[in-house]
Amino acid sequence: MPHFILDGKEIQFIQGQTIIEAAAKVGIDIPHFCWHPSLTVSGNCRVCLVEIEKMPKLAIACSTLASDGMVVNTNSVKALSARNAVMEFLLINHPLDCPICDEAGECKLQDYAFDHSVGESRFVENKVHKEKRVSLGTHVMFDGERCISCSRCIRFCDEIAGVNELTFINRGDKVTIDTFPGKELSNPYSLCVTDICPVGALTSKDFRFKSRVWDMSSTKTICSGCSRGCNVEMWVRNNEILRLTPRYNEEVNSYWMCDEGRLNTFKSVNADIRVNGPHIKRDGTLVKAGWDEVFALATSELKSYNKSEIAVLGSAFATCEENFVLAKFAKSVLGIKNIDFAKHEKPNSGDDILIRDDKSPNSFGAELAGIHPLKDGLNFQNIMRAIDEKKIKALYLVEDDLVSLDEDYKKILSKLELFIVHSSNFNSTTELADIVFPAATYAEKNGTWINFQGRIQKLLPAVMTVEMDRSLDGMAMSRLDKFGTEFDRWGKSKKMNARPIWKIITSLANALGTKYKYQTSEEIFDEMSKTIDLFKGLDYQRVGELGVKLNVTTLAKVKV
Amino acid sequence: MAKKKRLKDLSLLEQIYLPEIVKGLALTMKNMFKPSFTMEYPEVKFEPGASYRGRPVLVMEENGDERCVACGLCSRVCPAIAIEVQANDTDKEKERYPERFEINMLRCIFCGFCEEVCPEEAIIMSKDYELAYTNREDGILGLDKLLVPVSELQERIQFLRKYK
Ligand code: SF4
Ligand code: SF4
Ligand code: SF4
Ligand code: SF4
Questions:
Q1: Average model confidence (pLDDT) across chain A
Q2: Given A58, A91, A124, which residue is the final one in a domain?
């Protein structure tokens, strides 16, 4: 393999790679603003200038192809002074906005000013003033003074989102970013420009001034918005989710995620309509009850129906582990055959980039974990019909708002004699229920989801329920979490009295006389890897942060 | 049992104590008429100098606005994690203002780091040292208790400009 020397280190490369690419592959970061591994090279920021032996002038590492035997220096006197000079130029017109800028703390310009700049400005003239607080679209705010004209945002729209929405206008020190006349920055991935903007010129309106980045903890988890299952970081302060940002996974979402997933998936976790503690219907309204009381009621009610009169609906929003325990419970404890789950397909809502038609994150996993009708059992449509005909009198439903799928289900579900629901939030389905178990959301539990590619990916809890403890459960902790006490206002965070489905089913099975011993989601996964062929040899550690693709050839045989 | 032996036997004068008592009283008398250093607090209040670090307060501009831009740097630098700032959007030129600003005086150690780090000269160590509370909640001061007119803080501000 050909190689070149970078600061005395030998670096192998593939013919056609640039210096910066080859270095990035082996984990060496050559300073850069405009270069992005997923975008075309534009070479305008000049901060990646390096000295190459036998070349008369300094060259930019982002567009110079590596060649065999090349000797590159990033820290020679010439390279260093060039980098300082570029930084000085960039900072000439950059406002001293850090105190009011959301990017502070994760800003490339700040970091490089610290690492590669002399720290003193020789510029005494007035800075150029441009428009601040420009709304570029529904979600994105632009600050002209902070922009360093790297063109990443323009290239993102053109090359990744596939729409020409942004461009440079004017010239020289008047240059700024604007939308094309009559257009808005409104593509479904618009907020990705806030991730790649190296400075605070493009920021999210939703997250605007919500928190300093250093006050939040971040947890590596998965987006729940569709069956793509984009890898994300979940940012939490005071036990409240404040934002999601995409996490790099080349196989799934690269560096991106859609606006819908970024903005609208986590808000239900913080919502005021969370089910907090178990509820029972009394005189037509749901009232709070104790766990023991609800378990006793649910067991005695479930016992009073024939096996053929009961149906169990799993969920494409619940984890594989939860669906597995639920299926096992339905088959061996309740002894029923009518098991299925509802699909959440929105035809033609997907695209060729990330967004999928299937609006649930785990329909693959629910099926694989055993949520499908047994021989002679009814499928979802037939279960609904049988409820309508009053042949099925009791329904056990987990984490699904059926009425949101179809208003007509309201009439059908109200014919039930016993309706038990696990739900994280109150909705028009829980209104009809006799017993509501509070469900921990995807942000409050461990577990796995399988995306549309057959890739199994791991969820990590970022928010505590009353039964969890950030430090004892090994969850991500911010500075405030580490040092807060119950006497600090910020130490008293809101926690829900909710449990993951598997935990509730385990208690229910025990109350019905079958001993289930699950203590953690991981134990269930280990059992699955022993009993389900596709999961053979897998454990949480192997699944890891980026997930594992299940054996596709076997997958094809599984009916989905 | 052997008789205990003194290191030094007292002389007669020493044994009658009187001279020692007179000596002691003389010292007392002398000090009684010397000028005193103690203050009759709380009737008389101590007025500290500009270098004094009392409880940190927020600067209120002449128009009644807070000067703080809610950057959170004071909160970050505070070694005792006494400060909590929640920023929000404002139409004013500064774009950002503290929707909530709380200093927990039970945590504060009066180090003055917050004052030193503030980019806006918005948090100032005052001369207020009367900080006793009857419950923990009272020790957490919000914007209503923190904002102090800039005119009352001039002495310290001038001191900082000169020596910081
Ligand atoms: S707005 Fe940000 S990403 Fe776009 S050109 Fe300016 S600095 Fe680059
Ligand atoms: S494409 Fe799907 S998984 Fe990815 S961010 Fe959007 S909704 Fe979430
Ligand atoms: S004086 Fe020191 S301890 Fe007190 S609030 Fe300021 S930084 Fe915190
Ligand atoms: S450092 Fe100053 S401007 Fe920033 S939040 Fe504290 S008081 Fe406000």
A1: 95
A2: A91
- Distance of residue B20 Cα from the nearest chain A Cα, in angstroms: 56
pLDDT digits (tens, 9 = 90+) for A198-245: 999 999 999 999 999 999 999 999 999 999 999 999 999 999 999 999
Distance CA A319, CA A317 (A): 7
Q: CB-side exposure of A203: number of CA atoms within 13 Å?
A: 25
Is A274 strand, coil or helix? strand
Q: Which residues pair with A166 in a beta bridge?
A: A179
Under 8 Å between Cβ of A275 and A424: yes
Asked whether A526 and A517 are in contact (CB, 8 A), the reply is no
Domain membership of residue A440 (yes or no) is: yes
- Read off the CATH number of the domain in which A26 is found: 3.10.20.740
Query: What CATH number does residue A385 fall under?
Result: 3.40.50.740
pLDDT (tens digit per residue) in A26-82: 999 999 999 999 999 999 999 999 999 999 999 999 999 999 999 999 999 999 999
3-state secondary structure (DSSP) of residue B141? strand
Contacts with A181 (C-beta within 8 Å, 6 or more apart), sequence order: none
Q: Report whether the peptide linkage leading into residue B42 is cis, meaning its omega lies within 30 degrees of zero.
A: yes
Which tokens sit at A215? 């006050």
Could you give the ipTM of this predicted complex? 0.89
Is the Cα torsion angle A411, A417, A422, A425 positive or negative in sign?
positive
Q: Is residue A525 a part of any domain in this protein? A: yes
Q: Say yes or no to pLDDT of A558 above 70.
A: no
Domain that holds residue A298: 279-445+492-537
Token pair, residue A275, equals 């089910």
Contact across the interface for A480 and B71, Cβ inside 8 Å: no
Task: Pull the structure tokens for residue A163.
Answer: 């729409």
* CB-closest option in A132, A215, A488 to B104: A488
Could you tell me how many CB contacts below 8 A there are between chain A and chain B? 45
**What's the first-to-final CA gap in chain B, in angstroms?**
72
Counting other chains too, the contacts that A258-261 makes at CB distance below 8 Å and 24 or more residues apart are A258/A188, A258/A189, A258/A225, A258/A230, A258/A353, A258/A354, A258/A355, A259/A139, A259/A188, A259/A189, A259/A190, A259/A191, A260/A188, A260/A225, A260/A355, A261/A223, A261/A224, A261/A225, A261/A226, A261/A230, A261/A232
One-letter amino acid for residue A180 of the chain? F
| pTM of structure | 0.93
Angle between helix A501-511 and helix A320-328 axes, rounded to 10 deg? 20
The verdict on domain B56-162 having CATH code 3.60.15.10 is no
Model pLDDT for residues A171-183, shown as the tens digit of each residue: 999 999 999 998 9
With residue B103 as reference, give the H or E element that holds it.
strand B96-104
Report if residue A160 sits inside a domain: no
Cβ–Cβ below 8 Å for B81 and A208 = no
Whether residue A73 is contained in a domain is answered as yes
What are A425's strand-pairing partners? A274
**Number of domains comprising chain A:** 2
A201 lines ligand 1 (CB under 6 A): yes
Question: Of B88, B102, B104, which has the smallest distance from its Cβ to A209's Cβ?
Answer: B88
